[in-house]
Design goal:
Blueprint lengths: L41 E5 L5 E5 L9 H12 L4 H8 L2 H4 L8 H9 L8 E5 L9 E5 L2 H9 L15 E2 L7 E2 L7 H9 L9 E5 L2 E2 L8 E9 L4 H4 L8 E7 L22 H7 L28 H14 L5 H8 L3
Antiparallel strand pairs: 1-2, 3-4, 4-10, 5-6, 7-9, 8-9, 9-10
Amino acid sequence: MSQPRSGCNTWLEDMINSISPGEDHNMGSADDEDFTGLPCDVSYDLGLGGKENFHYFGAGGEDIPDGNKVHAAWLLHSGLSMGKIDSFLSLEMIKDLPLSFRSTRELCSQAEMLPSGPCWKSQVIHTSHPTKSPVILYWRDPIECIASIFNHPLFHRHMDLMPRKIYSTAEKLCHVYTGWMSGNVTWDMQSAIPKGATLLGTILSSDKTNITALTGDHVTHPLLISLSNIHMNVHLKSSTNSFVLTALLPVPKFIHKKNRYCFTALMSYITDTPEAMMLAVIGGKTSPVMMAMYKQFRDAFHHEPQTKSMMIAQLAVVCSRADPNDLEAYFHKAHKF
């Protein structure tokens, strides 16, 4: 599946009216609720946390015609003034359309009834090294994003709320997997949570994206969130906006991006014998790596190694016996070692 769209989910294009619930319900299955006696032009289902989610339907229970949503979305995004919208709605051919609004005031009032969606927040991230610009994290509450998806009327009939097991035969010899809700893990997880609770599977998606190419070259990682309860065929359609943008993970640009905090430890020094003897602070025919003279090179045992501590100790003894600024006296004393 290709990378989902990273745009913010808007409900204005759907133009599905919402009203506030009268009272809360306890968590339970929507199939067990008794909807007898409720108006036929309103659909009731349970939202996240046990609250009812209301949205309008047409007369007789059918959905609002697509023309109503298309006209409303176009008018809200057209940039026309309120007077011009009223002039458009006063046309005879527009009056014949089954619209739920007849003036700009009615259109705006219905649009204001729509859920506002999760609010954006920002936070400055402090780094240990200086950056070219402040590193700001823009994010929205993931729980609110999940709630907006779960309560979205567009997914009302395209979401699984209960795990299921599907078999190809009555003998249950072949288990058929069609989605996350048909898996064994989901079945076990549902059995572990309290009775009447709903299991929501969270999907996260992120991909590096260039926000601006010519003005600042800003790069970020948009983090998208969705629910695996939504049917696969709905997820595959980018126009459904089943993924909601929940965060913009910044990519900081450091001032000294090519400088590194390094430690240069001396691991080896490749030299010839004279240079090696000079580095080991020895003279004559002494080995620069062992505490042995040239007459002892054929001994059948290993002599003590020429170590750093040994060299520093010898230099300390020489410095105590001769002034390092008096080179002749200093080398005379050092020659004994």
